[in-house]
Specification:
- The longest helix has 30 residues.
- By secondary structure, the chain is of the alpha+beta class.
- Strands 1, 2, 3, 4, 5, 6, 7, 8 and 9 form a 9-stranded mixed sheet that branches.
- It folds into 4 domains: about 180 residues, Alpha-Beta Plaits, CATH 3.30.70.1230; about 130 residues, Rossmann fold (3-Layer(aba) Sandwich), CATH 3.40.50; about 120 residues, Serine Threonine Protein Phosphatase 5, Tetratricopeptide repeat, CATH 1.25.40; about 130 residues, Alpha Horseshoe (Serine Threonine Protein Phosphatase 5, Tetratricopeptide repeat), CATH 1.25.40.10.
- The protein is built from 22 helices and 15 strands.
Amino acid sequence: MSPSANDLLVDSGMGLPSRYAIILVIDLVESVLLMQEDEAGVIQRWQAFSTRAQQMTLPRHRGRLVKNLGDGLMAEFQTAAEAVSAATDMHEWMAKQCEPLANGERLALRAGLHAAKIFDGVTDIYGIGVNLAARVCTLAEAGETVATAQLRDLLSDTLDADIEDLGDCHLKHVDRPVRAYRLGPALHESSVPTSRSYASTLQASIAVIPFTNLLADKEFQGIGDLLADGIIDSLSMSPGLRVVSRLSSGTFKARSSSLAEIANRLDVRHVVSGTYAVSGANVTVAAELADASEGHILWSSRIRGKWRDLLAPKSELAHEFADAVHRKLLETAASRATTRPLPALNSYELFLGGISMMHRASADDFELSRRLLESLAERHPRVAAPHAWLGKWYVLRTIQGATDDLAKAASVALEHTQRALDLEPASALSLAIEGFVYCHLKKDLATGQTRLRQASAINPSEGFGWLFYAVAKAFEGTSDEALEAGHRALSLSPIDPLRYYYESLMGSCEFGAGNFAEAICWCEASRRRNRQHLSTLRILIAAYAATGQPEQASAVAQALLRLRPGYRVSTYEANSVAVLYPFGQRIARAMREAGIP
């Protein structure tokens, strides 16, 4: 998060300039006790650590020391990823390079991270956010880093850190519970191993990375996403291609990742990327298609046109690049995308913001995404996209357990998807959302599966369609088809803000197939990412019971009751379509046996 001149505001009450910053607080664990036992040794080692942090660690990660706290330090960073890397570097040095004390004991650090508005003084920074970073630091054990939801939302799971949800935590002198996350070193492999690869079932796999603005002009930052979206929309129309979702490929926006890393993380062979520069009404775009397996460029081109063309229902610039990629990868060019983009650049940027905030952990950001999308739907009544994503918003709200009125949620979601389909009958996303609503909220599996099959036929790369279809088949007991669809959904969205949900439903598919150990593996991975998802906990209870582990099943049941004290098995039976099948009936029995009333 880089502060700019536009971010600098003067607070009328304090007369101090304010801005948003990434704040890191480092604390020496048990410093008072250690000082009592070996004062000179602790001081000597802390000085060595502090010197290294100031001269090497902070400059390497573009950090700035705010103040030295005696037995701790406070620093600020330009990006959340750099702050996490700096904290990891400090932990590793203290654990491996710092000399142990005379009694053999090693010093250890704990770290807290927060993203918030701060106020600049002459020699210090101030604000509630600064205090919260220090409070969050107290949640960490020796060698750990803990962050708030505001900081977590600026990170990519697995790329920037291994993120574990600690749930709502109570902090001293903080009125409301704070959602906190433990951050570990970034993972280089999937957290859940699988022996099968479903990427090869389609002819070619491809990811389109948002294009980079060479001039760094904020007014036109959205054009890079607009270009990538237009190309993705076009490529996704071909059944001969597996196109990674924009939410996953967008993770690599403005990153200096190598071609090999992008291909490995997204499980693709081909990568499309590029740059652009705007001059007046014109935009110059340079794009290239790379073969990651062989490490060379297959095709590159430079095109100049009007940047407003990208706002047209069928952008000539975006389709020209997409058609060139098609000619190189496939025998015939794919059909041009029919998705109508929002007709104004500022609106499109708001649209991107609404989608981004929809997938954040913060409840406030999630609510703001709805208001943004509703505003866009009112501004552009003939555009389908805001309605399709609003339908998804109401589905995500039920997934998160934020509403008990499923009938109302279903009604509102269907209002938006129907409006979207009236405007754009071939909207795969709208059909996929309708499929979920009919299956899970209206308990009409037949109609739901029809919608989901239509979505996949229109856009074989619509991951949500495959995911919802997978769990519907799991409920019915068609396990092979469920697993096939579930793995295809994962392959289409390998790095997704809703990764926990994909893993949870894969656990459901494995449970339905009788693969209880695999179900536990998937659901525990999902639980690490989100400890408040009830469906994950229900499957874990049943899977632990099925593997003869009643103690673990009871422990998960108690965790569920702490999260939802009034939860009953009858609640599940009243709301879930799964109880109409042996799949759900087995889960209900397991919950009763594990202690759920």
